[in-house]
Amino acid sequence: MLILALDTATAVATTALVRDGAVLGERASVPIRVLEDVDALLRDAGLEPPDLEGIVVGTGPGSFTGVRLGLGAVRGLAFALDVPVAGVSTLQALAAGAPDTVPVIDAKRREVFVEQDGAIVALPAAAFEAPGRVCVGDGALRYREHLEATGAIVPLDDDERHVPRARFHAALAGEFGPAERIEPVYVRAPDADRMLA
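-> structure tokens emitted (197 positions)
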């Protein structure tokens, strides 16, 4: 099965083209360039959009705008190409790329997104601790000083484990279906809704 996978939930957008588990190509850039990256991946592999048999999208958590951008792009592609879609949590993709670590995504507002007891939650960054554990992701990078002071280990900034690679989304994809059924993982209401309230 030829799968396009992408994630735009963090500041680093990732895309990958995967056929039957083999990575044909992947890119990392910024969310606004995700469709450009998709086009480049297909061209580099000598493929056309109608060749795709499924799409996997990162569902977050992360930037509200980034998550919406990815879901919007995937829904448009799925509709135009009549292909099924699967969703994978960005935290799960980070964990797949860095086994035995604690994935931490920057939630802005001095908070981090993490998984606790099977649920994705937003916690105050100053209160989050993972003593003796390796923490990865943009949240770990942003709050490195605090995490290291409380006994966590944060790999170097350029360590590959900090990036939610789309190839892991493809590997983790479960059941494919209509794009409309894919739900974003926001964890909390958007800033705009808070301001209106």
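The chain has a mean pLDDT of 95.
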